[in-house]
Amino acid sequence: MTTALPKYLRGGLIASCQPVDGGAMDDASIVAAMARAAVDGGARGLRIEGLANLRAARARTDAPIVGILKRDLPDSPVRITPFLSDVTDLIAAGADIIAVDATARPRPQPVAELLQTIHDGGALAMADCSSLEEARTAADMGFDLIASTLSGYTGGPVPEAPDLALVREMARLGPMVVAEGRYNTPQAAAEALRAGAGCVTVGSALTRLEVVTGWFADALNGVAR
Ligand SMILES: CC(=O)N[C@H](C=O)[C@@H](O)[C@H](O)[C@H](O)COP(=O)(O)O
Q: Which of 134, 178, 202, 204 to mutate to test the pocket of ligand 1 (most atoms within 8 A of CB)?
């Protein structure tokens, strides 16, 4: 399955099932239900954070899972899968693809070692990048998938729109591109494929009920009565 995975995901949707931290839906059985529902609705793959969530989702679907662990480190801004032990734990929990922060920022363990550990464990490696330069480095290192996940999240205000320009440039590098980050409408997701993405990950718009509800509530609040 592993080598056929990018082909299977091509043109499809990855549903990121990451509830709001500490929110009402932050519970492994709810994450697993979200994952199952997303697959039933047509998602080809899933992105799941945390070992308990991953195990619970794995028990409910055979769909490919991008596994991540998020950590808040005292001495590094890197949050997504920073440790080699995170990689082995995620693979043991049933992840098919492991995503790691591949930004050029201070980190506890080198990206090259994370990549090696992913491949040694028989999984595919996905590089969460914030820039073209990082994506190029990841492609040269041998990552199987390169993603725009961290564009807009490494400093300064977070833009409203997704970074389609980055996706367009990443598409020339070789590995399959995963467009991720602020693809909040079906139209924007389709635009990412037209820009050269192999597949598109959508999170908040599908699985963060508080966020989506807020969009609607804000829009209604903005209407004078
Ligand atoms: C920056 C960061 O940590 N992104 C995270 C990565 O796992 C998630 O919080 C996002 O929900 C995911 O990337 C999908 O993006 P969006 O929720 O915009 O569809």
A: 204
**Is the separation of the CB atoms in 137 and 170 below 8 Å?**
no
Could you report the predicted ipTM of this complex, rounded to two decimals?
0.99
Domains with residue ranges and CATH for the chain: 5-221 (3.20.20.70)
Beta strands in 102-214 (DSSP E): 124-128, 145-147, 176-180, 199-202
pLDDT of residue 222: 85
CA-CA distance, 149 to 199, in Å (whole number)? 12
Cross-strand pairs, 46: 15, 65
Residues contacting ligand 1 via CB (< 6 Å): 16, 18, 68, 149-150, 153, 180-183, 201-205
Quick check: 2 pLDDT over 70?
Answer: no
Calculate how far, in angstroms, residue 225's C-alpha sits from the geometric centre of ligand 1: 35
- pLDDT tens string 93-146: 999 999 999 999 999 999 999 999 999 999 999 999 999 999 999 999 999 999
* H helix or E strand, kind and range, residue 66: strand 65-68
